Amino acid sequence: MKYSALRTSLIGLVVFVLYIGHANALFFEHDPDDPDTKAPMREGEKAVIPLDTKDPVYNVWQQTRDDLMDGREPGPINIQRFPGGPGFMGIPTFFKLPIALTPEDLKAGDVDVAIVGAYTDMGGGGRGAAWGPMAFRASPSVSGWGAFSMDHMLTLVNPFDELTMVDYGDAPVDMLSTERSMPAIREFIRQIAAVKKSDGSHVIPLIIGGDHSLMYPDAAGLADVYGKGNVGVIHFDAHYDATKSLFGHLISHGQPVYRLIEEGHVPGKNFIQVGLRGYYPDEESFVWMQEQGFRYHTMAEVEKRGWDEVMEDIIREAKDGPEYLFISFDIDVMDPAYTPGTGTPEPNGLTPRETFPLIRRLCAESNVVGFELVELLPYRAPGYETVLNSDRIVRECLVGIAMRKKGIADEHYLAPLTVDDDQD
Fold it and tell me: Model's pTM, two decimal places?
């Protein structure tokens, strides 16, 4: 017992020394009294148990090292030993990409897309979404990287040739508090999106979660850059995630939509929801959505009208709104046959054949300024299909962004060689 107590004390001392030693490092803490960022406090709402702000490790989770730029010039860092390889080879960054650690790295590298891990999990009850980013980095996809990367067959576009992309590490997350994590993640995303490229556009943050509480800070961080009301959201989900209060909590994986509307970051008319089914939302919630101006497409509508017609409506609506678009993709929108490793699976969902083209088209035919994939719980699935399909969803998004950068503006563009053998 005495050795255990000594070990605990030593760990606490080491953490304290590290905390003091990096006193000048960057924090993502917000001012709780800042009227531009504070959440509104309504009658009956209050904090229940206070936090010990004098704890020496109170802010360690959001404190960056102060030596990130020591001994080097700003820019992406390629940590791979070889120029490329198959998917099972290499140090597991996102898609084996170079890493970047600071906004200066993004600026110097003229980065198009910064991919971020965000391991929020308390917003869903701590069920395993924290492991999503790490599992994604170690994706079972055999697709090559670096010199081994290949064209996306349907479009013959290779996003890894067309785009400059990096693994930007993980967002700051307090693993014991969704509420504390939200403002820190929001500031982290804002810093990424605020970086301007040489062509005047901004870096696109692409977030891998993590539970769906992430939609709130991710979309709010983008609105901080592009302006409140100027960002539209396409929300792929089996559930509408606009619950006002849940056991007294005002933010969880089932509440980000309400918070964004309540605080004015994204008005209801700028929301498009896709894939709703099961038992949530209920009648009262549907009425509220209509009052807010939501556009939504349930699986009941798909059954009645057919997927092709619904897909065209979604794409048309994405273009008929704000200039900037954020895509929030909860993997439970897909049928659990394809993504069983998620927190709240619902049968009768979308298939890969329905999902992949829509994501690619949205990212090619709209001005997407951010993307998130959430509710990836890899250890809830017995196989590898959840991570494999999640990997492909993000790849389809990257192909679309690359197509837009190349100037491929045709609706539902497919390379002629891939759709016609020309033997008639």
Answer: 0.91
